[in-house]
Amino acid sequence: MKSLMSTLTRFGLAAALLFWSGLVRAGSPPANNADGDVVTLTGWLHVEDHTWQDALVHIEVDGTTQVARVSETGRFDLRLPANTEVVLRFEKPGHLPKEVVVDTHHARDGDPGKHRRHVKFAVILELERHMAGFTYHSPVGTIGFEQGGGCVAVAHKRDKVPPSRNKPMVF
Predict the structure, then answer these.
(1) pTM for the structure as a whole
(2) Residue 82 included in any domain
(3) Which residues, in sequence order, are CB contacts of 20 under 8 Å at separation 6+?
(4) Does residue 14 belong to any structural domain of this protein?
């Protein structure tokens, strides 16, 4: 009986320690009405080989570029300022990079804007070898908020540019 109690005690202490350490590593608190100038994005990268160690998310805000960390599951969390336009560039070696524009200008409009803004989305990166030399013409999508109402507005574009035919041949 004594060994069962000591095992349960150790298990309980270990569980409490893991729970507490998870709370500490949770990172920055989510946006709420108190920090109304923030839009939170949670995204997931999808790649064929299911490894994200060398995947990067570049965030360009007002001419400044930062790099966000991608977790071992492909997840990334970003806090963006309101009333700005942000360009997100997703890159992984061997994959065709993609850009998404996030416009937070009307995030505080309407009844939805009075609540916490948390947008969730996924980005699929295709292998370059499957794209036959094609590239994307422009950002593949935009995420924004409707003027006056503040509802999330999403647009997708997958216009591709064929490879240049006038390149000199290299032997």
Answers:
(1) 0.71
(2) yes
(3) none
(4) no
β partners of residue 87: 60, 101
E-strand ranges in the chain read: 38-46, 56-61, 64-68, 75-81, 85-91, 98-103, 118-124, 135-136, 141-145, 152-156, 160-161
Distance CA 141, CA 151 (A): 17
Total domains present in the chain:
1
Which position has the token pair 């416009």?
A: 103
Domain span holding position 71:
33-161
Query: For the chain, how many residues are written?
Result: 171
Q: What is the pLDDT of residues 65-116, one digit of tens each?
A: 999 989 999 999 999 988 999 999 999 999 999 999 999 999 888 887 777 8
With respect to residue 16, please indicate whether it lies within any of the assigned structural domains: no
Per-residue pLDDT at 169: 56
Q: In Å, what is the CA distance from 96 to each residue of 1, 49, 59, 100, 156?
A: 61, 14, 17, 13, 16
Q: Answer for the pair 72, 101: CB distance below 8 angstroms, yes or no.
A: no
Q: Contact, 84 vs 94, CB < 8 A? A: no
CA 109/CA 104 separation, integer angstroms: 10
